[in-house]
Design goal:
This is CoA ester lyase. The chain contains twelve helices and ten strands. By secondary structure, the protein is an alpha/beta fold. The protein has two domains: about 10-250, Phosphoenolpyruvate-binding domains (TIM Barrel, Alpha-Beta Barrel), CATH 3.20.20; about 255-305. Bound molecules: glyoxylic acid and magnesium ion.
Amino acid sequence: MAAVGRPRRSCLAVPGSSVKMLGKAQGLPADQVFLDLEDAVAPLAKSDARKNIVAALNEGDWTGKTRVVRVNDLTTPWTYRDVIDVVEGAGANLDCVMLPKVQDAVQVQWLDLTLTQLEKTLGLQVGRIGIEAQIENAAGLVNVDAIAAASPRVETIVFGPADFMASINMRSLMVGGLIPDYPGDPYHYILMRLLMAARMHDKQAIDGPFLQIRDVDAFREAAKRSAALGFDGKWVLHPGQIEAANEVYSPAQADYDHAELILDAYEHYTSAAGGKLGAVMLGDEMIDEASRKMALVIAAKGRAAGMTRTSTFTPPG
Ligand code: GLV
Ligand code: MG
């Protein structure tokens, strides 16, 4: 099933230790920001980063952006303090908590229960804060169905390629890019596995970072591969990657127009006035109920991206 929720074509990583970047990110055209307490923040800077993030969420202008904080993973001593400080300090100005290196459903349930406790104590609406589950190791991938189903708060399944590559001993340092020794896409299985779990449970599927931040063409190629499979968006690490992600994860104008046309034509032809037909020709193409479902996916993505159609369907008369 197509998961359409908050737009997340571009998910911008912002280190919580950098007050400057927390400020700058607010003016960038990313669909989502995630303010990081995990791997972009040194252990000795975690405590200050929590304070910076609370201040940035409460005092910044994040209009139009989904606001996410990535906490540390549950094998560290920091996770509970991350969640408590951020939600107590800025729970009303936070949309999701991202849990990295998720290994099983219990970890998601821990976060769900902790958020519920905090929301009840703080008088916040219970269940409003969502969860992003980042899959970064073999255990997480093997358990991804249970992870996606672990809580209604889960909104996304996110790929973490760098940690994942380390977890499975992949012999490359080229995160997110193709590997010359492998005659295919080394991430294909992982991406498809994540996508199946996400779609089965009606969650969004988000691709991870591409580290060669100055090579926007290479970023675009990597993004196109997961977009072609059906992913909803990708992390961006640099302002230069944002426009490319917004473009790649939106339908092309011609595809969007075509999808809207199929929906209108199908509605007309299946109606009494249109002849109660199930399978009909639209130009040179035969369309039926499955075409409508495919068109709905593209149309929904286009509408979520704020696209305007440039053609209309005129019933033959
Ligand atoms: C992101 O967290 C990654 O490990 O790629
Ligand atoms: Mg990681």
